[in-house]
Amino acid sequence: MRAKWGSKLGFILATAGSAIGLGNIWRFPYLAGQYGGGAFLLLYLICVFVLGYFMLTAKLAFGRVAQTNLVDGFRVVGERAGQKVSPVWGWLGGWIGFITGLLIAAVYIVVIGWTLSYVIEGGALFLGLSRHPIDEHLFERLVASFGYQLFWSLLCIVLTTFILVKGVKKGIERVSLYLMPILFFLLLFLVIWMIFLPGAGRGVAFFLKPDWTRLGFTATGFDASVFFNVLLVVFGQAIYSLSLGMGVVFVYGSYLPQQTDIKSSARWVVGLDTLVAFLSGLIVLPAVFVFDLDPGQGPSLSFVSLPLIFAQMTGGRFLMFIFFVLLFLAALTSLLSICEASINLTMDMLKTTRTKAALCVAAVNGIGVTVILLSFTNIIGLKIGEENLFDFVNRVTGAYMMPLMICVCCLFMGWKVYPVIIGNLGQGSGHQSKTFKTYLKWVLCLLAPAVIVISALFQK
Ligand code: PHE
User: Fold this and answer.
1) N- to C-terminal Cα distance for the chain?
2) Is CATH 1.20.1740 what the domain over 8-457 is classified as, yes or no?
3) What pLDDT does residue 98 have?
4) CB 3.0–4.6 Å: which of 9, 40, 220, 254 could bond 35 by disulfide?
5) CA torsion sign, 196 to 199 to 200 to 202?
6) Pairwise pLDDT comparison (297 vs 163), residue with the higher score
7) In this predicted structure, which of 236-245, 294-303, 340-349, 372-381 has the lowest mean pLDDT?
8) Could you tell me the distance, in angstroms and rounded to a whole number, from the CA of residue 124 to the centre of ligand 1?
9) Are the CB atoms for 143 and 376 separated by under 8 Å?
10) Residue 142 banded pLDDT, cuts 50, 70, 90
């Protein structure tokens, strides 16, 4: 018997838990800082509601029709639609999704490891148990220590495996039901604190008011290359944030009871995910402006600058603790989903139990993390070109593997099995309006693949 979600709320929170993660709280604010604040936000909102929501909806239905793992899913759903399906679909969509999941899990765990160490650091400072200064070398010191990072990462693997072994309903769903409300509470608390800092207005304006030149619209004309460059980043972020580039949404959809309405659930998930990204921008960017730092500095924004900001604020130690707890909770529920997708396929392929599959995935994650951490150090100094493995994996999965996988899924859903997908969206045999049907088909057959191909061509 395939596992099932216990309730619609549980499913929505677990899927939102997957979507809301490092992508929202860490990546979104620094990308918005780099790519022009309001302009980036506006394009992001358009991308999510014009494309992302529809892709998410279709993929949930794809999973629900399939009722199996992603590799076999292509064949099974193809048969349902009366189509002969070449195994190439399963390899491209399923196996690439699986490998991407394992690679991203390793990167994700390393970052969660950093987050955990910051939680402890912030907590210890707050309680007066630590005298470590929070300075610009905090992060450097952390990354220089292989053993310390490995410890936190392994702890994180143990924790996730412990939850995942308990299953879909008793593990993932239950944890999400508890953690997601806490996450929202912490988020609101921080937003309110940050936007009322004296001088925060400039940061809020930067984030909310689009500067059209950043999208390529200048007084003298329109610069398409600027626009496409931002679009590419925005679209990549939308795919990542909605957990679309691997088997996660498919697998979560396959645990859905047939009577659950997919469209309304997807609206909730997309709405919550976008709200959290928006609020995270409101936490990070105003603070950056208050303390006159550079909003466009990139990935180091949360791990290097934010602690410096906290160090200068009244109550900053406490806030630092809260911020990293928030980041940790968000990332944990996402990691659960990434690992669940891998476990699901492993169980089927090795014909084994959930516990054994979870242990296999944990072992592979452990190896992945160790190799990545080794590449930070001089011990074996693994480098690919100029990049360490962390950057390499991040770039290759984000720029090529996730887009390829989602492109294969969209083409398959749009061209091969569309009637089955559309027939499975609503409650039971739910009837969809003609406009919706036509638009979704356009998104799957053409719009989403076109944006992906254009993005790949423009990739620097
Ligand atoms: N959506 C997650 C985030 O925003 C990342 C993720 C990607 C999770 C793909 C699962 C699958 O951090």
Assistant:
1) 46
2) yes
3) 95
4) 40
5) positive
6) 163
7) 372-381
8) 29
9) yes
10) confident
Pocket lining: 107 vs ligand 1, CB cutoff 6 Å: no
Residues 6+ apart with CB under 8 A from 409: 59, 62, 93, 250
Alpha helices in 378-443, H assignment, sequence order: 389-396, 402-411, 418-423, 434-442
- Which pLDDT score, from 0 to 100, does residue 190 have? 93
State the closest ligand 1 atom to the C-alpha of 273, by its place in the atom list counted from 1: 4
pLDDT in tens, 253-289: 999 999 899 999 999 999 999 999 999 999 999 999 9
Predicted local confidence at residue 153, as pLDDT: 96
Token pair of 168, please?
A: 């879909």
Q: Which of 57, 63, 44, 13 is nearest to 281 (CA)?
A: 44
pLDDT beyond 70 at 460? no
Give Cα 270 to chain centroid, integer Å. Answer: 12
Return the pLDDT at 381.
60
- Structure pTM? 0.93
Burial of 391-429, coded b for 16+ CB within 10 Å and e otherwise, reads bbbbeebbbebbbbbbbbbbbbbbebbbebbbbbbbeee
HSE-up of residue 24 (Cα within 13 Å, Cβ side): 35
CA of 223 to the centre of ligand 1 (A): 32
d(CA 48, CA 241): 10
Q: Identify which of 243, 246, 327, 365 to mutate to test ligand 1's pocket (most ligand atoms within 8 A of the CB).
A: 243
280 lines ligand 1 (CB under 6 A): no
Give the atom of ligand 1 at the shortest distance from the alpha carbon of 240.
7
